[in-house]
Design a protein that fits this description.
By secondary structure, the chain is α/β, with parallel strands linked by helices. The protein has twelve helices and eight strands. The longest helix is centred in the C-terminal third of the chain and has 19 residues. The chain binds phosphoenolpyruvate.
Length: 256
C-alpha cells in the first residue's frame, strides 16, 4: 500500500451469513476489538436485511456499512433485486459488484457488472469492483488478459471523475474461501497490472489514486505481508471478517 497516494480500505464481505441480531452482536464485539484510529477505512458489506442493524450498531464507530450487490435499474419489475437509491436511503456508502460468486452462481457477466457499477457510482456509492482469474486461467498463463478485460469492460462509460468512487478488488477465484492465498508477489503483480490498465485509460495520476485491494483468504496471519506491497491497498475479506479478533488484526496490519 502507498498511503501517501491513496486510501487503504479493509472491507469485510459477509456473504450469506449473519441474521440481524447476530449482526448487532458481532459489530458490538468489533467495536471493542478494532483500533480506535485505524490507518485505513473500515467497511462491512452485509446482507441487505442486516443493513439497518449494521448501521445502528456501527453508529459512532469507525465502521462504514456496505451492501453486497446492487441492481442497475432505478426501479421496476425486478423481483428480488435492490436499487442504488434503496441502498443510499438506508445509509449505505459502499457496494460490491462482480464478486466471483455472483459471476459463478447467478449469471453475472462483465456487461451486467458494468451496468451495476455505473448505477452505484451515479447514486454516490463507492463501488468495490471484483475481478480475478480462475485457477485454469492462471495455469494457462492468461491471468493478465482475463483481469485486464474484466477491468476494461466493467469501467465502460466511467470517466475520470467517476473513477474516484471506484475501488478494485483483485480476487483470484482459486483463493476465495479455499484457504489458499496468492503470494504477496502474485498479488502485487496483478494489482500492478490493473493499475497499468487504469493508467492507459485515465492517465498515471488518476491511476495512482485508485485503491486496489487483494481478496482471497486474507487473514490475521498473512495481511501484513500482503499489505506491505506497493500496489496492494487493502483487502476484501470473507471468512475472517466474521471473527472480530481476526478482522481487527487485519485492520491493525494497515497501521504498519
Ligand atoms: C471474498 O468473499 O471476497 C473473499 C475473499 O472470501 P475469503 O476471504 O473467505 O477467501
Amino acid at each position: 500500500m502507498n498511503q501517501a497516494k491513496r486510501r487503504t480500505v479493509i472491507a469485510g464481505n459477509w456473504k450469506m451469513n449473519m441474521t440481524p441480531s447476530q449482526t448487532t452482536a458481532l459489530i458490538n464485539e468489533m467495536k471493542t476489538t478494532l483500533p480506535a484510529e485505524p490507518a485505513c477505512d473500515v467497511v462491512l458489506c452485509v446482507p441487505f436485511v442486516d443493513i439497518a442493524a449494521a448501521k445502528a450498531a456501527a453508529e459512532g464507530s469507525v465502521i462504514k456499512v456496505g451492501a453486497e450487490n446492487v441492481h442497475f435499474e432505478e426501479k421496476g419489475a425486478y423481483t428480488g433485486e435492490i436499487s442504488a437509491q434503496m441502498l443510499t436511503e438506508c445509509g449505505v456508502e459502499y457496494v460490491i459488484v462482480g464478486h466471483s460468486e455472483r459471476r459463478q452462481y447467478f449469471g453475472e457477466t462483465d456487461d451486467t457488472v458494468n451496468l451495476r457499477l455505473l448505477a452505484g457510482v451515479k447514486a454516490g456509492l463507492t463501488v468495490i469492483l471484483c475481478v480475478g482469474e480462475l485457477l485454469g486461467e492462471r495455469e494457462k498463463g492468461i491471468t493478465a488478459e482475463i483481469v485486464s478485460l474484466q477491468t476494461k469492460v466493467a469501467l465502460r462509460n466511467i470517466d475520470a471523475d467517476m473513477l474516484k468512487k471506484v475501488i478494485i478488488a483483485y480476487e483470484p477465484v482459486w483463493a476465495i474461501g479455499t484457504g489458499l492465498t496468492a503470494t504477496s508477489d502474485q498479488a502485487e503483480e496483478v494489482c500492478s497490472i490493473i493499475r497499468g490498465v487504469l493508467a492507459e485509460k485515465y492517465g498515471d495520476d488518476a491511476a495512482q489514486g485508485v485503491t486496489i485491494q487483494y481478496g482471497g483468504s486474507m487473514n490475521a496471519g498473512n495481511a501484513a505481508e500482503l499489505l506491505s506491497k506497493e500496489n496492494v491497498d487493502g483487502g476484501l475479506i470473507g471468512g475472517a471478517s466474521l471473527k472480530a479478533a481476526d478482522f481487527a488484526k487485519i485492520v491493525e496490519a494497515s497501521n504498519q
